[in-house]
Amino acid sequence: MFISSCASSRAHAPSTSSYLRHILPQIFDSRGEKNLVTMLYELVGIARCASENHTKEAAEVVKHIGGLVLKNRGVIRQVENWGVRPLPRIWNQNRQSHIIAAHFYLKFDSSPSVQRQIKRALDSDARMLRSTIVRLGGKDLPSLIESDRVSA
What we know:
Elements: H1 2-12, H2 16-23, E1 39-48, H3 56-71, E2 75-93, E3 96-110, H4 112-124, E4 128-136, H5 144-151
Antiparallel strand pairs: 1-3, 1-4, 2-3
């Protein structure tokens, strides 16, 4: 008797997804798909300069990262090429020594899972020497560019 009553109560219970749509309507859009919670991020990257065209590899990395953001329903707000600059010291990475590198800046909105995917892609890319992704909060936190301009 106990087993049959449990089975019958499960048949009439609402599914988890419909329950979540009822309780948390702001997370789901009109098609019933999950809306991604997006946050504003800044990415500062340093790419190697291995060829004669120094900014080519940095541009390819920015295109790849931008594609990841756009493919996952994100928004790219700003892209800046900071050019080729000398490094503060010789960096040895992937059995190569680097004295100059291409620097770039990317500001984008995406979900935290996409941000982690971007970080993994940057860490595994041999063209990248360094990268930093910072989540921007409210009005209290200045961006990396604004704090750099204020201190300069």
